[in-house]
Amino acid sequence: MEQNIFQLKESDFEGFALDLFQIHYRHNSTYRQYCDYRKIVGEKVQSIKDIPFLPIDTFKSHTVQLNRFEAEITFESSGTTANTSSKHFVKKLSIYEKSFKTAFENFYGKAEDYCILALLPSYLERGGSSLVYMAEKLIQQSKHKQSGFYLNNHQTLYETLNELAKKGQKTLLIGVSFALLDFAERYKVNHPNLIVMETGGMKGRRKEIIREELHEILCNSFQLGSIHSEYGMTELLSQAYSKGNGKFYAPQWMKVLARKQDDPFSYANFGETAALNIVDLANIYSCPFIQTDDLGKVYADGSFEVLGRFDRATVRGCNLMVR
Q1: What percent of the chain is helix, strand and coil (3-state, nearest 5)?
Q2: From CA 218, how far away is CA 230, in angstroms rounded?
Q3: CA distance 124 to 135
């Protein structure tokens, strides 16, 4: 099945997801335990909205695997010192690489066309980050001599951006929110061929602000009309992207559904503020059906907004204050 994930047509998505559900219902012991707790009978699941979505915190307390396997890599969430981190055991790195490379190319074109600069200090320092792994591989793929990670050396980053601007080089700066804000407070950049992409996250380093306020500050500093965003998490092997209008678009093997805030087993209408469930078919060997703690809105065209998180949810790296 895995070879079909990234060639899937929209019309085949639900059937593929239902087939995956039956496999996980039978062979994923943690997921089956949850289904039994919910009194879900596998044979009665006939549509994507019948599928039970595994609460995301399960990745903190249980091993989430289809059958048992030796993980090629284990990605770990940032969490906080007081909270247990989520662990995502990845059976095949090739699936994760195919997922992020294909999605990036679909949304932005070839990585080789960009100089890719990554400002991800907290992720680099702790290790085990799926975001760092993705950035590292895209940097390698770009093959540009100035592509690379910038820990806290903002002056070098500023000089690099100026050099790239003079050459007219297409550039992607991907960064965690607090690090981009730290940079923006000290420097003003004029680079017309620059894309700035924030991945969320204050990591307790700065006061939480809403996404619009963050983007306004960054647009002013980088002299850009819009700031792009990446939506991903440790528990997913796929990412969605926003090019600046607040709406995220997912690749064709990922779908976001809106569940009611006061009833996690019922679905909300398009455009209604709700909690987000995610089908990520790239999670074929962990769990493709994730009940997140994010609040947002889902629209009829499949796009979605992320508005914040439930108050009860653990503070995570991707947290933005609810409007």
Answers
A1: 35, 20, 40
A2: 15
A3: 11
In the chain, which stretches have pLDDT less than 50? Answer: 314-323
Q: Are 254 and 278 in contact (CB under 8 A)?
A: yes
- CA 242 → CA 156, 210, 216, 286, 323, distances in Å? 28, 15, 15, 26, 18
Give residue 124's pLDDT: 79
Tell me if 239 sits within 8 A of 229, measured CB to CB: no
Give me the chain's average pLDDT, please: 92
Tokens representing residue 282 in the block:
């790239």
Task: Please check whether residue 92 is in contact with residue 285, taking contact to mean a CB–CB distance below 8 angstroms.
Answer: yes
pLDDT at position 322: 33
By three-state DSSP, how is residue 236 classified?
coil
Q: What is the CA radius of gyration of the chain?
A: 19
By C-alpha distance, which of 291, 323, 289 is closest to 306?
323
Query: What DSSP line would sit under 259-298, residue for residue?
Result: EETTEEEEEPPTTS-EEEEEEEGGGTTS-SEEEEEEEEEE
Q: Is the dihedral of CA 127, 55, 9, 43 positive or negative?
A: positive
Q: What is the pLDDT of residues 112-142, one digit of tens each?
A: 999 999 999 878 778 899 999 999 999 999 9
Complete domains list, the chain, with CATH = 2-70+254-309 (no CATH), 95-231 (3.40.50)
How many residues does this entry show for the chain?
A: 323
CA separation for the pair 247, 237 (Å, rounded) = 20
Percentage of the chain beyond pLDDT 90 is 83
Give the list of residues 6+ apart from residue 20 with CB closer than 8 angstroms, or none: 1, 281, 284, 288
Residue pair 282/251 in contact (Cβ under 8 Å)? The answer is no
**Complete DSSP assignment for 163-191:** HHHHHT--EEEEE-HHHHHHHHHH-----
pLDDT value at position 202? 62
